[in-house]
Each structure stands twice: as C-alpha cells, then as structure tokens.
Design a protein that fits this description.
By secondary structure, the protein is α+β, with helices and mostly antiparallel strands. Helix content is 27%, strand content 29%. Strand 1 and strand 2 form a beta hairpin. It is globular, with a radius of gyration of 13 Å.
Length: 82
C-alpha cells in the first residue's frame, strides 16, 4: 500500500506484518520503500517474532538484506504467504 501527502513525490509506504494464524497485525512501519523501510518493519516486530517466527515476503531484495536468513522465506504472492 502507498499514499502521498501534498504531492506524488512524497510517497509513503505502509508496511504491515501479520501473524498468519491469528491474522493479527504484529508489526507496522510507515516510510519509503527502501532498505530503511524494511529495517523499520523488522524493528517494529516484537522480540518473540524476531527470535522465533519465519517471515514470508515477496522477492524484493531489501528483505534479504535486513531479515536474518533463519527468519526469512521468499514466497510468491500466489502462495498466499507473501
């Protein structure tokens, strides 16, 4: 999801992390679509998720740069996981 404030040059992305079992939002970050945005989403997760959960994402490279490989799995959107 994205939106802009005042002009289209100020795009802001809404990053959400959902628990797949409960559908509860467990992490959120608003910012640009960059490595910093992926880092903001990772930091917004509770410690228990950062230590134990597996995060399913699409193929965007910033996730691989930020999320530890033990906690990250790439999945296509058609899988319903990303």
């Amino acid at each position: 999801m994205w939106s802009f404030v005042s002009n289209q040059g100020n795009k802001q992305w809404l990053w959400l992390a959902l628990d797949t079992k409960t559908r509860e939002i467990v992490g959120v970050y608003v910012g640009d679509r960059s490595r910093d945005g992926a880092q903001g989403l990772w930091q917004s997760l509770p410690n228990v998720y950062r230590q134990c959960a597996v995060c399913y994402t699409d193929f965007w490279s910033a996730y691989e740069e930020v999320f530890p490989s033990k906690r990250h799995q790439v999945a296509g959107k058609e899988s319903g996981l990303a």
